[in-house]
Amino acid sequence: MATPASSTNLPFGLAEIEAAARRIDGAVVRTPTLYSRVLSERFGADIWVKFENLQHTGAYKERGALNKLLLMDEAMRARGVIAASAGNHAQALAYHARRLGVPAVIVMPTPTPIVKVSQTEGHGAEVVLHGAVFEEAYAEARRLADERGLTFVHPFDDPDVMAGQGTVALELLADAPDVDVLIVPIGGGGLISGIAVAAHALKPEIGIVGVEAELYPSMYGRFAGKPGLACAGDTIAEGIAVKAPGEQTAPIIEALVDDIVLAPERDIEAAVAMLVAAEKTVAEGAGAAALAAMLGAPERYRGRRIGLVVSGGNIDTHLLANVLLRDLARSGRMTRLRIELQDRPGALVAVMKLFSAHQVNVVEVLHQRIFTSLPAKDAAIEVECEARDAHQIQRLVETLGNEGYRVHPVTIE
């Protein structure tokens, strides 16, 4: 069990978090914490889900950004604020800055998708594109802050921001006071720091588990005494793809968080799909990380009372579609079958009749005659298909084999 908040030297405490809750009340959504019967039955635990993906800008970041803005004096607000972000922090700061009449500048890496640039500009912020990676955008934001006299609003390494994020725990524990473990995504550590301070103050015996993407184990490395672990790769959880742990968040996490676990990409994808199916809610990769942690070690949480934080829902629709289709493929409900057959009239029709007989729906057919190692009189087709379950497809494969066709299912990891 981690050290109780009262015995640690923290830059903020429950009083600051409760003050932040009063400060932002009515300007951010008090998101619901709901008991999930489906997930509870699936894991053999009692699971409550905190839906921070229902914030106006789609993520919890509004809480900390707004708290920071409201704590600034009039002179600071008049000069304006600046941040480096290509994601949820940019949206949150831009949105609430416009509400309060505060000029906002957001520095984004040059490769940032145009939709994110447009959304941020739509909230009234000036967008500056600079650098190929986040670190270069961050350095430029710091330079512009000095040059223009703007207040830099850090996405996580700021006590006022962390206190704002801690209001998530106040609401969750008010709605589900019996939870004994909170599972929270970790990027820079602002969310889990605020939650851990609030939760330990209200319920000292509560367990706190943090989750990082396996490809970006920066806080895990520090927490586990393994600094310098590689942080790289295309993770679906880009919202928590942080290469360096926060200087101010790390000591809080070391004091108050019981464990940090790493979620592989496959589990994060599966969690996104599971939240759609079980809760009818859309989570981004980072937002689904808490559930991904349970998928990776279900026995650890069996019989426990769990609070899951779905931290955000800003996922590209095309990426979401890919994730859902890949989940269907992994479950066996969708597959691609490579079938060898003679290249003669009626051959394709004969195969399709077998699909129809088994009530397997054909999604796409690729007929290949040229780019194949088969004899010139033969051909290969690739059929993407879907069924009720894996057994239905397996029965079709067996029938195709019995009819003399050579079938090679194409699978994904």
UniProtKB/TrEMBL annotation:
GO MF annotations in UniProt: L-serine ammonia-lyase activity; pyridoxal phosphate binding; threonine deaminase activity
Claim: Lyase is one of the keywords in the record: yes
Natural source organism: Allosphingosinicella ginsenosidimutans
Coiled coil ranges: none
Enzyme class label: lyase
NCBIfam families registered for this protein in UniProt: ilvA_1Cterm, PRK07334.1
Keywords for this protein: Lyase, Pyridoxal phosphate
Top-level taxonomic group: Bacteria
Cofactor field: pyridoxal 5'-phosphate
Gene Ontology BP annotations: isoleucine biosynthetic process; L-serine catabolic process; L-threonine catabolic process
InterPro entries: ACT_dom, ACT_ThrD-II-like, Ser/Thr_Dehydratase, Thr_deHydtase_catblc, TrpB-like_PALP, TrpB-like_PALP_sf
UniProt cross-references to Gene3D superfamilies, sorted A to Z: 3.30.70.260, 3.40.50.1100
Catalytic activity line of the entry: L-serine = pyruvate + NH4(+)
Protein family membership: Belongs to the serine/threonine dehydratase family.
Record EC number: 4.3.1.19
Pfam families: PALP (PF00291)
PROSITE patterns in the cross-refs: ACT (PS51671)
Residue span, ACT domain: 336-413
Annotated protein name in UniProt: Threonine ammonia-lyase
